[in-house]
Amino acid sequence: MPDYHPVLIHSKFARSVSLRPARLATYLTGAVGSSFLIAAPQAEAAITSITFGFGSVLNLNSNLVQSETPILSPSESFGKMYVDAGTYFNGANTEEFITLGLDALHNKGSFYFENLVEPNPFYGKAKFLAQGKVVGDTTNGKLGQATFSSPGPGFTITDNQTNKFLGFLTSAGNWGWTKVSWDATTKQLTFHSAYVESVVGSTIAVGDTGVVPEPSRALLALAGLGAAALRRRRKQAA
């Protein structure tokens, strides 16, 4: 990581000026009443939009039998997710399944449950997360299989769900979230969007797309006033 040092600019037409970003930041903090962070460049986690190998829709016609589908965009480096979507004849009855992920012990991509206590630690009806929930806080969550439709008692979601959030962990170890809608009548699950943290192990907040909001005009104006005041002080000290 490069170190920043004060730089002196010498000219026969101007006096030496010391470029000290820290002094400017300190002055602006007092003038504006906010903290300005000036730091050396470093590698940081980046939130990345992804698509799943099965596409944006899962239903009983998907015919994905215990399938490990890759994350296709932007690359397969984020690993795979486990999907089971279709109808099966068990010798006596036709059974319907739409499930996502497996327990963490299988390392095939798992879904995040907040305070999961039933029906068991690894498999259960999908539970949705609130916007802003931090995915990856394993002190308050567990990994497992999220079920939308299953012949098991209490595993099928019987009401329509619109624009709900799920958290997940890819097989490569990237935490992520996805926004989905569930049609309980047709038993179709639609994925509207999905995002992961590019750095393995870094947590992600539900709803965070990595877009940094632009500074408000008021904040920019205050910063400009602080810089102008600093220039006046330098002229008076000259």
Could you outline the blueprint of secondary structure elements for this entry?
Layout (H helix, E strand, L loop, with lengths): L6 E5 L2 E6 L1 H12 L14 E3 L1 E2 L4 E2 L5 E10 L6 E10 L4 E7 L9 E5 L8 E3 L8 E2 L5 E9 L11 E9 L5 E9 L4 E10 L6 E2 L11 H21 L1
Parallel strand pairs: 10-12
Antiparallel strand pairs: 1-2, 3-15, 4-6, 5-15, 6-7, 7-8, 8-12, 9-12, 9-13, 11-16, 13-14, 14-15
Helix pairs in contact: 1-2
Can you give a write-up of this model?
With 238 residues, this protein is mainly beta. α1 crosses α2 (217-237). The longest helix is centred in the last third of the chain and has 21 residues, at 217-237. A hairpin with a 4-residue loop joins β7 (80-89) and β8. The two termini are 35 Å apart. The protein has helices spanning 21-32, 217-237, and strands at residues 7-11, 14-19, 47-49, 51-52, 57-58, 64-73, 80-89, 94-100, 110-114, 123-125, 134-135, 141-149, 161-169, 175-183, 188-197, 204-205. The model is unreliable at 1-43 (pLDDT under 50). It folds into two domains: 7-43 and 219-237, no CATH class; 47-205, no CATH class.
